[in-house]
Amino acid sequence: MIDAHSNAVQFETHLLDHRRQYRTGRVSLRLRTDEDVVGLRKQVRERAVALALSLVDQTKLVTAASELARNTIKYGGGGEVHVDALDDGIRKGIGLLFVDAGQGIPDIDNALRDGFTTGGGLGLGLGGSKRLVDEFDIDSRPKEGTAVLIIKWKR
Fold this sequence. Notes:
The chain has 155 residues and is an alpha+beta fold.
């Protein structure tokens, strides 16, 4: 559910605090329309360039972000993404946390398998996104919502 006053997605997840100690900045963006996905892609690309990620890593991160943003809208009914700047003292990275208050994913292991789809697509979304990033975590509860965390570190 989206809180009418704050416009924040009301899905409580431990992933909201993941790597908090390394977070040097956070920007939260809504995900409701295709234009929101385009805006996110632009934001992620700009941050990846500023961090001097390789072109390959930039492309992987933007691709994963786009796929997960579209899933948030299509399957979660819209939501938000938190874009985090990360610095653990040794390396810098970008974290993206996608959160929705949709129907949730009843079988996460199955949903991560290539070929699994409930929407008629190729079924590469979650599993493909996981392969494109350095860290991936998911928290989903039926009828409550889903949160997906991805992190790409500068090599």
